[in-house]
Amino acid sequence: MESSPELHRLTDDPEARACERACALLAEGKLFEAEREAARAARALEDGGEPWLLAESLTTQGVALARLARDADARDALLRAAEVAERAGNGERAGRALLAAVEELGARTPKDELCATYERAARLLSSSSDVDTLRRLSQCARRVLLLLDGRATPPDWDKFSFREAVLRYESDIIERALRDAGGVVSRAAKLLGMKHHNNLVSILNTRHRELLGERKPIVARRRSLITRKKQ
C-alpha cells in the first residue's frame, strides 16, 4: 500500500507525518509498528482533524490489522475509513478503503457481505479516472467472482471469459433481489440500489431473459370511474 501524494505536501503536520511513517512501515512489513503509528494518528485526528487524513490513517491501520489476522478490528477500521471519507464527500478515498477490505479480508468475509462491500466500492468509484484505482477495482471484481465460485485456484484462463463471469454474477444477484422482493420489479430495483425500476426491466429484457419468470405478473391498473365517465 503506497502513501497518498497529499501526505508528502503536509510536511509540517504531525499526524500526516505519522500516517506517512505508518505507510512506510507497512511497505517494509513491520506490521505491529505500522498499526501502532496509524492508530496514533487516527486517535489524534478523531478530535477534529482533516477527514481525508483520518480516512487515510484508518485505511492504513485496517490493512495492518488484516495482515496481523485481527479481522474484526481490521473490518471496523476500513469501514470507518469509508464512512469518514464518504461523509466528507470524498467518494474516491471511500471506495479505495472498501477495495482494501476486499483485497485484505475477501477470503475471510461472508459472501453476502463481500458482495455488498464490492458493490459499494464500485458505486463510489464509478466516475474515477485514476488508472491504478480502476485496475484495483477490476482485480477485486475478479477476486470476488472467484470467491463466489468457491474456487481455491484461478480458472483455466484459456477458457475464461470475464464478461460471462460478470453476467453470471449479475444474474445471481438480480435473481436473489427478485426473490427477496416477492417478484416485484420496483422493489427489487430498490434493493439493488437502482433509482428507476425501468433500468432493471431493461437489464432483464436484454441480458437476463431467463429471469423473466421470476417476475410477479403485471396487474393492469383499474381505470378510474372519472376516466370511464368521460369516455
Could you give the topology of this structure?
Layout: H1 5-9, H2 14-27, H3 31-45, H4 51-67, H5 71-87, H6 91-105, H7 111-124, H8 131-148, H9 162-180, H10 185-191, H11 197-206, H12 225-230
Helix pairs in contact: 2-3, 2-4, 3-4, 4-5, 4-6, 5-6, 6-7, 6-8, 7-8, 8-9, 9-10, 10-11
Tell me about this structure.
The protein is mainly alpha-helical. Helix content is 68%, strand content 0%. It has 12 helices and no strands. It is elongated and about 60 Å long. The mean pLDDT is 83.
CATH class call of the largest domain: Mainly Alpha
Q: From the coordinates shown, what is the CATH architecture of the largest domain? A: Alpha Horseshoe
Write down the CATH topology of the largest domain: Serine Threonine Protein Phosphatase 5, Tetratricopeptide repeat
Strand content: under 5%
User: What is the number of helical segments per DSSP (H or I, 4+ residues)?
Assistant: 12
- CATH superfamily caption of the largest domain: Tetratricopeptide repeat domain
**What spatial form do the alpha-carbon principal axes imply?**
elongated
Mean pLDDT: 83
Helix coverage percent: 55-70%
Order of helices and strands: HHHHHHHHHHHH
Please describe the biggest sheet, giving its number of strands, its sense, and whether it closes into a barrel: none
Oligomer: single chain
Class based on secondary structure composition and strand pairing:
mainly alpha
The count of DSSP E runs of length 2 or more, i.e. the number of strands, is 0
